[in-house]
Amino acid sequence: MTNNDLLRRLRYTFDFNDNQMIKIFALADEKVTHEQVCNWLKKEEDEDYDAIFDNQLAIFLNGFINLKRGKKDGVQTTPEKRLNNNQILKKLKIALNLKDTDMIEIFDTVDMRVGKSELSAFFRKPTQSQYKVCKDQFLRNFIHGIQLKYRKE
Asked: Cβ(38)–Cβ(18) under 8 Å?
């Protein structure tokens, strides 16, 4: 799953318009233009398509956390230069204020059985022996489950 695909899916799920997307970046103290947002949301085949880098996606996710949970006073969280699926999953969990049981229910909606211990392995430090890498298919299913739960039809 590309960063652009993730950004498009989150936009669709929560029905954000371009101005709301710009506002989310601003909540993480990042100024982006309407043109940048539009180019990030385009398909790869489009000549104006721009790839959104890990750092920019991390800023968006931090802004999403601020939107959903409220902005903390003081210095904002430093966005990661490199993002992996485990970090994305954690940021979505924080933004949506999900407990383990909520996440397991979301996976159940897409017929993916996940145990509590398997789920907690995604949130461990990479140096711990129980750490598990979150693969693309796992994150893709989680995003689909979020769409089913939060998308207003």
From this structure: yes
Report the distance separating Cα 56 and Cα 54, nearest Å. 5
User: Whole-model pTM?
Assistant: 0.92
Judge whether 79 lies within some domain: no
**How far apart are the C-alpha atoms of 107 and 80, rounded to whole Å?**
26
CA 5, 7, 9, 11 torsion: positive or negative? negative
What backbone phi and psi angles, to 5 degrees, belong to 97?
A: 55, 50
Q: How many CB atoms lie within 10 A of CB 73?
A: 6
Domain count, the chain: 2
Distance CA 91, CA 85 (A): 10
Residue 53 structural domain: 3-69
How do residues 34-64 score in pLDDT, each as one tens digit?
Answer: 999 999 999 999 999 999 999 999 999 999 9
